[in-house]
Predict the structure.
Amino acid sequence: MSASYLDLDVRPILRDGGEPFSAIMEAVGALAPGQSLRLLATFKPLPLFQVLGARGFEAAAREIGGGDWEVIFTPAGAAAPEPEAAATADDPRGWPRPEVELDNRDLDPPEPMTRTLEGIEGLAPGQTLAALLPREPLFLFNELSARGHSWHGSTEPEGHYRIVIRRGGQAPS
Amino acid sequence: MNGAALSRWTMAYFACAFGFLIGAEVLIACGYGFPAVAIEAPETLVLVHVTAIGWLSLLMCGALFQFVPVLVGQPLQGGRLVLPALLCLLAGLACLLAGFLSLSGIVEIGFPVLGCAAVLLAAGFALVATALARTLWSARRTGLPMPARFVAVGLVCLAAAVLFGAVFALTFTGLLPATDVAGWGLPAHAVAGFGGWLTFTAVGVSYRLLPMFMLAPETERATTRLAWWSGSVALFLAILAAPAERALSGSDASLVAAGLLGCVALACYGADLVFFYRRRKRRAIELNSRSAVGAFACLCLMAVLAVAMAVMGEAVRHVGTLVFLVAYGWLGGLGLSQLYKIVPFLTWLECYGPVMGRKPTPRVQDLVVERRDGPWFILYFAAVLGGTVSLLADRPELFRLAAVAMLAATAAIGLELVLARRLFNVAREKRLPEGTVRPHLFFATQR
């Protein structure tokens, strides 16, 4: 079975403080039909599950010691299902560089959420904003979906969460 | 990873739960049930089930419908079951209480009302467990995080508690052959309900909510895993092995092993709580996190008392005191303290979420007045402690006095929750910016 894996180790990129998303998407693009991707990372890359899940991949994750994770993304036999929400459905590789970078890590809740939503209101449709948050913002995700914005993000090795949000087409009210 | 939406009926569950809490405290203050009558008297059964199902289980269900999606990062599955579940549980509890009253001879009911209670309560809890288990199941691909594993074990224990309860009810009704079912099954029923369903689930949810409210690190710790394993094995021994052993050989070895493992689980949980409070990034913590310390202290006190009484061979005589301390000090205290955060937070999110970032909005903290409410929590926990001491000292009149103090504190906290829900404490000019709607008291508006 292991012969059908394409191996990708993004731990060096993460340890150097880099962003492994494009390397992962390149590897996904290079997969042969039916081939699985075996990803090694320094944390459990939960947001990837959604992004690759939308492309029809099943994820199986296990901790391999030292805080590192092995995740195997296997293409499902059926055609890729339509993603449920607009959020994360479009490919973040085509997004422009963030207009605004917010560091909301040291604010008391719910200020990180409030400030992030304020920041988006200052963007034109299609522009992006990056924000560092103290933790995974589950209630913010819901608000972003309700407002028609797209986002992708991940928990950084230091424990905080980095999210990039692309403003949807709706004009500010 | 998906977001977490507002649970539509959570406030209705909370409101019903609060009503039953007030009712139970009134009954205790009036001297109804234990300690005036025996612990197995029908009057005491009324009191215990108003507390365990009416107050604590409805509170737990309402909280889980909102927070299990947060624990696993998946939307709630089977949201349509939530309201029918509440109606089944309310009808089932009403039948159960009527059944106990008829056992006590106060009323005469011409049909097997306890049988109806068994069916309705089993149906209600089955609907609750179905929605929650499906939500947990939907997260299996990414592996269940530790807090969700506690909830999963709690749901299995809920099924066990309901099953034992249904067997008792059907036996009392005469629908099952008469056996000494309460003799071997009652401890397992109580441990499954208070220990497995209510305590283990509350512990799991607290593993996620406490770090969330205090900004403490959420890395998975070895002590958390040990707490889960030892607690799960302890519950298995107490609920399945102990009744079998009691029925077959009459000995209690597995119950002793369960008690020791339970102590290991509590010690690990205590170590994790100290870690969360010490390593929090938010230095000035809010009233809910401060008052929760009272609940943790009650849990610790209960464990110390239980061990001391078991060693002295007095555990059976004082089991009522221990149940009171668990139900009102640990579970009830934790419930009240966390409601004080959850209700304002969900209200704030519901009302101001749609305009956040577009219009100036109040902070969550503006929905409550902590300085005014702190003393009510102090009164509540002092009254629980006083009640415990008066039960140990065999002073029922002082126990009733403590219940009056608990009732006053609970009513004040309940009133503050209603005020928070109605945005009463927010300055009038900031209260309802354009585009917002005042939340309904008993349910959340869906977007």
User: Anything to note?
Assistant: Chain B has 13 helices and no strands. The radius of gyration of chain B is 21 Å. The CA atoms of residues 295 and 330 of chain B lie 4 Å apart. The mean pLDDT of chain B is 94.
